[in-house]
Amino acid sequence: MSEFEKVTTGLGEECGVFGAYDMDGGDVAPSVYYGLFALQHRGQESCGIAVTDTYGERKVHSKKGLGLVNEVFDEESLQELKGNLGVGHVRYSTAGASRAENAMPLVINYVKGILAIAHNGNLTNAIELRHELEYTGAIFQTTIDSEVIAYHIARERLNVEKAEDAVKNAMKKIQGAYALVVSSPRKMIGARDPFGLKPLCIGKRDNTYFLASESCAIAAVGGEFVRDVEPGEIVSFTKHGMKSDKTMAIDPKKQARCIFEYIYFARMDSVIDDVNVYHARIVAGKALAESYPVDADLVVGVPDSGLVAAKGYSEQSGIPYGMAFHKNSYVGRTFIKPKQSQRESSVKIKLNVIEEVVKGKRIVMVDDSIVRGTTCANIIKMLKKAGAKEVHVRISSPPFLHPCYFGTDVPSNEQLIAHSHTTEQIREMIGADSLGYMEVDKLKNMVGDLAYCDACFTGNYPMEVPGRDVSLAFE
């Protein structure tokens, strides 16, 4: 699927991972299903669940496919997934094409049994590692870098006693961003890259442990949030409980959480690394109101991730907050159109302006980002057609100037409108009456003392990055 065939309201998502281990032996597939359902915003392209019974034959039963969670699974298919240890995944393609075989979890049969692996993120050295494996006889079934991780874990497992040590040895070789949930015949293992670029947290309900990309998924299955997996930490769960290994951790000052989790990716009811996402977006909106005040009648947010920032702008500026858009909830964040020319009509399918709210008013429209500018221009056009007198655009992120190598689908420089145009040129192109972006130095207000990655805005990458776009490497 080319970049132009993805129709989104902004950026491509990341992915979502979820794991469940019931120590009492109960089936976990329904819990994994609901966990993935709560993470659907992180990827709508494909999904999958793999389960195993740690007490029985230890076979892995899996089902995956292209589409949303409720399209791929039904009651019957969940009943067939018998097992007390399960791994699930929702996917948005960053590396590797959109094909059924690239759906996760990956299930690998090898000498020591069966591994199932779900991965959120992108490796920066995937190409070299893949070539190295191919030249020693590895045969790849997919075009995703997650398979490179799975092979390295399987190989390392032959040299060590415990599966979690195999994960640790694999982590010494892989570079980039990753949150991993791995099931071996008797264990569930979670691992987070040393920079903490991707989120991962732990939850518990009775005698069932959960791993999830976001805390909202733990709440969705009636679990209690325990804590975040720390950057560089490996956690393992067996019938004896949980163990932790932090030997891969790095200096906290060098950690680099993805700031875009707080701006856009995460659901507003999640808490990541002790930072409440809702609060972070309120702070962002307030910062925008301080930096770019304007005389206006109403502040509105573009659903979904612009809504809370708009509320923050309203609170700081004293301008009333209103709901100007109806969003069709039955269209995923991403859906496919055959031609770029159909991008405009697809925006209207997803969003409709409520004329009564905006007619005759000067509007402040808050959104999370401008990527190419197409979507933003269409929304402004819709607002003005509905009678808005003025539309002042405020963006709760700085301009995108650099590609992301860590699993966020920020397009190449040529497609980033801010890369080749000034703010004033962009304002003119999208038809806004004024335009203000979040200032880079105010991002820190959103997350307090947390060390974060803002490379897509500044070019300051937390590690060495490849000279070319790794996300195109395996296509």
From TrEMBL:
GO BP, sorted A to Z: 'de novo' IMP biosynthetic process; purine nucleobase biosynthetic process
Keyword Iron-sulfur: yes
EC number: 2.4.2.14
Keywords, ordered alphabetically: 4Fe-4S, Coiled coil, Glutamine amidotransferase, Glycosyltransferase, Iron, Iron-sulfur, Magnesium, Metal-binding, Purine biosynthesis, Transferase
GO-annotated molecular function: 4 iron, 4 sulfur cluster binding; amidophosphoribosyltransferase activity; magnesium ion binding
Keyword Iron-sulfur: yes
Positions in coiled-coil regions: 153-180
Binding site residues for Mg(2+): S305, D367, D368
Cofactor note as given: Binds 1 Mg(2+) ion per subunit. Binds 1 [4Fe-4S] cluster per subunit.
Binding site for [4Fe-4S] cluster: C258, C404, C453, C456
PROSITE patterns associated with the record: GATASE_TYPE_2 (PS51278)
Cofactor: Mg(2+); [4Fe-4S] cluster
Domain Glutamine amidotransferase type-2: 15-240
Domain of life, source organism: Bacteria
SUPFAM superfamilies cross-referenced by the UniProt entry: N-terminal nucleophile aminohydrolases (Ntn hydrolases) (SSF56235), PRTase-like (SSF53271)
Catalyzed reaction equations: 5-phospho-beta-D-ribosylamine + L-glutamate + diphosphate = 5-phospho-alpha-D-ribose 1-diphosphate + L-glutamine + H2O
Pathway: Purine metabolism; IMP biosynthesis via de novo pathway; N(1)-(5-phospho-D-ribosyl)glycinamide from 5-phospho-alpha-D-ribose 1-diphosphate: step 1/2
Catalytic residues, chain numbering: C15 (nucleophile)
PANTHER family, per database record: AMIDOPHOSPHORIBOSYLTRANSFERASE
HAMAP family for the chain: PurF
General function of this protein: Catalyzes the formation of phosphoribosylamine from phosphoribosylpyrophosphate (PRPP) and glutamine.
Family: In the C-terminal section; belongs to the purine/pyrimidine phosphoribosyltransferase family.
UniProt-recorded name of the protein: Amidophosphoribosyltransferase
Record organism: Dorea longicatena
